[in-house]
Amino acid sequence: MTKAIRIHATGGPEVLQWDDVPTPEPGPGEALVHHEAVGLNFIDVYFRTGLYKSALPATIGMEAAGRVVAVGAGVTDVAPGDRVAYATAPIGAYATERVIAADRLVRVPDGVDAKTAAAMMLKGMTAHYLLFRTYKVKPGDVLLVHAAAGGVGLILLQWAKAIGATTIGVVSTEAKADLARANGATHVLVGHDNLAAEVKRITGGAMVPVVYDSVGRDTFMASLDCLAPFGLMVIYGNASGPVPPLDLSVLAAKGSLYVTRPTLATYTAKRADLVATTDAMFKAVLDGSISIAINQTYALKDAAEAHRALEARQTTGSTVLLP
Q: Which residues form the Enoyl reductase (ER) domain (predicted)?
């Protein structure tokens, strides 16, 4: 048998149950992975609350690292004994073992342990596509980064600095401001009151070409006011709730702006893109361009406690659940 955190109904952290489930057998094209560490992400909350839909009962979780136990017919990408990691759909990471399509797994290089791999896969790949694909950051660019002390935020700050960009990090507390500065933020704002005025002051009136926003509803309109003409608003999460419907004429009035809602699943749908992204991410970690801050760990069976801390904005950096 395998142990798994499952939801039988959507709701608060109390719906997370520590269940016994049959250990699955890998079918054609699949691999059975024994998890050594599982990553915690805000998207897990969306599935738990029902904002994102799944059939019930469901094992949630999008990210983990471990070793391949067995493979099904036709698998060539990985072999039993390989150290591997993965992120994105389908859900099912909150388990001691799970079956997943083998072409979604990548080998973890020597020098990166399982906890670090589980902490970095979804967040690191997200930072990569935001910086190198959604908006191709150049040396000298000024970037506005919300939730700058979060898992994606801390990686994004470091990577942007390595590129040669200037970052304006937005955080909720002074302690998180110190953390953002320690991870490469050029400027830090505590809270999003008077956000546009502060960005105008920092940029000498030029404003910014791109805003990276995982907060959503509470910051969206203020963030639009921080963009330079033709600027790009990147909404890649909605921790405060979904952005309400938008009258597109607002984008015209504020400077012919662009808005996008990207997902990691789209950017890594092709295996070649997945491998290229993780290769770049692992290289950046191994050469010291970025470091992964695991600031909280919980036993997997205590996932409800981890969810409470995440939703209360009590976490920074990455959180790892240990089976």
A: 11-321
